[in-house]
């Protein structure tokens, strides 16, 4: 009967190690995802700032809506 206990304990140890490995993978992927999200946020701020900066130098006959990605030329 003790061989069965040893076998079950061995399986339990393997499963615990596998769980730790998967938990580490999950945490690593979550950290990588967070880092990528932060890069996208920084890039979006950079693009928005540059868009507004560039559009602010246009003649007043242009009407810009950078959040919508729209640029109008008003012809009188």
UniProtKB/TrEMBL annotation:
- State the InterPro entries in the record: Cenp-F, Centromere_CenpF_N
Pfam families per record: CENP-F_N (PF10481)
Q: Which GO terms describe its biological process?
A: metaphase chromosome alignment; mitotic cell cycle; regulation of G2/M transition of mitotic cell cycle
Looking at the keywords, is Nucleotidyltransferase present? Answer: no
Q: Where does the Centromere protein Cenp-F N-terminal domain start and stop, copy by copy?
A: 4-40
**Ranges in a coiled coil:** 5-32
Keywords assigned: Coiled coil
Q: Which Gene Ontology cellular-component terms appear in the entry?
A: chromosome, centromeric region; nucleus; spindle pole
GO MF terms, alphabetically ordered:
dynein complex binding; microtubule binding
Q: Does the keyword Coiled coil apply?
A: yes
List the protein's name.
Answer: Centromere protein Cenp-F N-terminal domain-containing protein
- Record the organism: Chrysemys picta bellii
Instruction: Read off the lineage from the record.
Output: Eukaryota, Metazoa, Chordata, Craniata, Vertebrata
